[in-house]
Amino acid sequence: MYSHSEQDYIPQLSIDCVIFGYQETQLKVLVPKLDFRGDFWALPAGFILQDEDIDLAARRILEVRTGIKDIYLDQFRVFGGTGRSNRPFLERMMSLNEGKLGSKMLNRKEFEWVTRRFVSIGYYALVDINKVVPQKNDMDESIDWYPIKDLPPMIMDHHEIVEKALETLRLNLDQKLIAFNLLPETFTMRELQELYESIFDKPFARNNFQKKILNLNVLERLEKKFTGAANKAPYLYRFLNAKG
Amino acid sequence: MYSHSEQDYIPQLSIDCVIFGYQETQLKVLVPKLDFRGDFWALPAGFILQDEDIDLAARRILEVRTGIKDIYLDQFRVFGGTGRSNRPFLERMMSLNEGKLGSKMLNRKEFEWVTRRFVSIGYYALVDINKVVPQKNDMDESIDWYPIKDLPPMIMDHHEIVEKALETLRLNLDQKLIAFNLLPETFTMRELQELYESIFDKPFARNNFQKKILNLNVLERLEKKFTGAANKAPYLYRFLNAKG
DNA sequence: ATTTATTGTCTAAATAGTAGACAATAAATA
DNA sequence: TATTTATTGTCTACTATTTAGACAATAAAT
């Protein structure tokens, strides 16, 4: 499972990632499903190497799952309840998968290490969903984008982690001008508005939304976009402060 | 130093506390000075027991230092750079204090434990400075309130931690209505304004500040305060949502 | 009685946010 | 080709909020 042994990591400390994407007017989260009987879903997670900055650890974990190096990333909260252990979950999983676990089973030492109580640092990431090729790891059966309004049941407190990530995203969206990380290079005003609506789960007035966004002076207007629809063609825009 | 042995704690994970107080129109931070030659200051800190919620660990650490149980408290950021070890600091301290360390010296095992790289969770606290009786621990020479604009040199990245705490405090102040935690039970409008000015390090217009605060509808107006000054006496106010 | 410094509040001006309206346009329809 | 339809871009009026200026009320000193 790891290229490093468990001694190489800081014990009892993990990173959980909420990877946001946007597709078909829906805000989505990238969630792997574990390759065991019992339907277990868990946020992409990992540990911190002894000589690794926590932000870089988060980047490493995110790159493995998305293939993207230069990813927008924000640390938002630490989850440190006393009940945060993988033990109940792993034991239930083992009881449901007796015959199958051999190849993937952890040895006793690893099992002890990974089933202790963990404190987890929550990071959320914003990606252009079209640039991501989701990567399973050895433990996964699959990895997919789920609408945030229709997430699968996840282990431990992972629903709470997503909830808190979304809350922080909403607070930061206007302040830090980060919505554009969820869109392709160019987009129409309507697409940007629909993205806002999916994040805040409420409608915005079209005229005033456009005014507000244009007054930020962070968009470059490009040529018109051919839609083929029976109406006026919208302009395309590009975010100016794009690092790239 | 501890009533628990080092195995009772989560290794390599600590809590650093920025305890804010307010006195004589200055925002202050409670900082202990270590009882060793060399003038070492360090934020109040501690570790997390294996069966202890991180928020409760922070409360425990704060109660030890302030004597206050019901303290306002907010987790604001994790500090996880690779350079975060006490080793350089402890070794320098040891070289400066050869004769003196015996009684307080950690044994070898404890020394190894405490000098590894640490990831630290930052909490800030807001207290009524008049209710606090600062408590030294075994390692401290003194513990005092320092104006945030005139902090002593602190070890490691503790200045950065204070900086980030202040930044978060500013962002949260209006949103969460927490300034009142820094004042006594009753206060005048001018006192509240001067508190805001010390936190944001900028002046506020008196008329508009008063209007804004009163429009929040969270203050109860009490009797007038006798000042003895040659002018109109100000009203006293009390914060309504006070949990007490 | 007058002066002084500060407090509480009012009003006007400037700014920002909200709601309604309409011309411009690209393609479908008649 | 003229008309209809759906959507886009923008304008203006209206409302709410923020900022700036003004002044009466007051407690004690002069």
What does this structure look like?
- The structure is a homodimer of 244-residue chains.
- By secondary structure, chain A is an alpha+beta fold.
- Chain A has two domains: 172 residues, Nucleoside Triphosphate Pyrophosphohydrolase; 60 residues, Arc Repressor Mutant, subunit A (Orthogonal Bundle).
- Chain A contains six helices and nine strands, in the order βββαβααββαβααββ.
- In chain A, strands 1, 2, 3, 4, 5 and 6 form a six-stranded mixed beta sheet that branches. A three-stranded antiparallel beta sheet of chain A has the order 7-9-8.
- In chain A, strand 1 and strand 2 form a beta hairpin.
- The first copy, chain A, is elongated, with a radius of gyration of 20 Å.
- At the A-B interface, strand 1, helix 1 and strand 4 of A face strand 1 and strand 4 of B.
- The structure holds a DNA duplex (30 and 30 nucleotides).
- Chains A, B: It holds the Pfam family WHD_NrtR.
- Chains A, B: InterPro entries: NUDIX_hydrolase-like_dom_sf (IPR015797), NUDIX_hydrolase_dom (IPR000086), WH-like_DNA-bd_sf (IPR036388), WH_DNA-bd_sf (IPR036390), WHD_NrtR (IPR054105).
- Chains A, B: This is DNA mismatch repair protein MutT.
